[in-house]
Specification:
The chain contains six helices and no strands. The protein has 149 residues and is an all-alpha fold.
């Protein structure tokens, strides 16, 4: 789980730093011409992710018996003659499922933060961005810690 958080945050920091760095180095806002495309794409990805993850969670209490039966049947069934690739992919995906969910969530939310910070920082001097970013990161870590506890 922490690998997903760290990798997602690292990618967001690199992309955000590059975007803001290019703006102040070139003096041209390259983001403005494609901002709506990015926002639409991120919104669509968020909608799909929330639907795919959220819908089954609404039915968790009804599906526990079904899952227990499927797990029991799968553990008892040891057929290695067919579906080896499919079973290995499923095992790999399930093993790293939490990584991918957390990674994509951090990446999506981080990209939205980049859009917000870029929008604010492009109308301010370059010295205003670091304090806002560091304060936002510290506040996010604090609130995340409170939610975890």
């Amino acid at each position: 789980m922490w690998a997903g958080v760290i990798l997602g945050l690292l990618i967001c920091l690199i992309v955000g730093g590059a975007l803001i760095g290019v703006f102040y180095a070139k003096g041209v806002d390259k983001w403005a011409s494609t901002e709506y495309y990015w926002e639409g794409t991120l919104g669509l990805v968020a909608t799909i992710m929330i639907s795919l993850v959220g819908a089954p969670l609404l039915r968790v209490s009804m599906m526990q018996d079904k899952w227990a039966k499927k797990l029991h049947d799968e553990l008892d069934h040891k057929d290695t003659s067919s579906g080896w690739v499919r079973r290995n992919f499923q095992a790999w995906f399930l093993r790293y499922f939490m990584f991918w969910i957390i990674f994509t969530t951090v990446l999506r939310e981080g990209t939205e933060a980049i859009v917000f910070i870029a929008g604010v920082s492009f109308s301010s001097p370059a010295s205003a961005a670091p304090l806002a970013v560091v304060t936002g990161l510290l506040a996010a870590v604090f609130v995340g810690y409170l939610m975890l506890k």
